[in-house]
Amino acid sequence: VKKVTVRTLRRMKEERQPIAMITAYDYPSAKLADKAGVDAVLVGDSLGMVVLGYDSTIPVTVEDMLHHTKAVARGAKRPLLVSDLPFLVAHLNRDEVLKAAGRLLQEGGAEAVKVEGGKEVIPAIRACIQGGIPVMGHLGLTPQSVHQLGGYRVQGRDEEAARRLIEDARLLAEEGICALVLECVPEELSRRITDAVDIPTIGIGAGGSCDGQVLVYHDLLQYGNDLQPGFVKTYVRMGESALKGIRHYVDEVRRGVFPTEEHAFHLPPETAERLNG
Ligand code: KIV
Ligand code: NA
Q: I need a surface site. Which of 53, 93, 98, 202 has the fewest CB within 10 A?
């Protein structure tokens, strides 16, 4: 099994081989993603919502990202490991950007960082790339800007916004990003962008024309979340089977059905006898 690198992703675009990416947040999810053969794993700051229970990704810190990236790095070996630069970091000065991104690689074990935003984050992207840190871009619905955008909604619907998105994608590609996530943009727009740039586009809610797809672990496995965005396909109902299992356990404990003999440990008979005697 050959390690996936940024060059692998680029070659996959050239060979029109679709890239399969998924988020992971801990050791077991990372191991499963690796075992299933995904090409890239994203430790998304979506962990704030699906794992930590926040209302948005805004409260997520560099420390949170490190904590989860370390766990994922222990479980995912073959896929390219990407970690999100959390809220506002890309807007700090060059030293702060490099310190945060550098820690995600050096301490966390990430192999690239993902940065939300267009033109305005080019200085941060440039600093990382000059420092040898591969950067994945993220345009369209950028959840760290949810308050600015006025909710989680499709982006680039009018001509001006669409042109701005295409322009941002070109600019980021020129900076040398390794791939570009397009979130919640109309299919026609993601196709235009995918054709316009040499780097792979990875869509989420962006239709089937991107070079790859990414979904949030807890969405595609329907685990712990009740509301699914419309672009998600549920492949397994993990939450449902987990709930069933836990309910069964609770019921058996209450009825004295679990544990049975097979789950018990015993003393050697002589020791038991002496203790009783
Ligand atoms: O945090 C995340 O999970 C993401 C993906 C949805 C692209 O940024
Ligand atoms: Na994210």
A: 53
Torsion of CA 267, 272, 275, 277, to 10 degrees: 180
Query: Which ligand 1 atom is at minimum distance from the Cα of 143?
Result: 8
**Whole-number average pLDDT of the chain:** 97
> Domains along the chain?
6-236 (3.20.20.60), 241-276 (no CATH)
Element (H, E) at 81: strand 80-84
Judge if the beta carbon of residue 45 lies within 6 A of ligand 1.
Answer: yes
- pLDDT confidence of residue 226: 76
The pLDDT score that the predictor gives to residue 74 is 98
Beta bridge partners of 80: 40
- CA atoms within a 13 Å half-sphere pointing along the CA-CB vector of 152: 14
CA-114 nearest atom, ligand 1: 8
Give the pairing of strands 212-215 and 135-140: unpaired
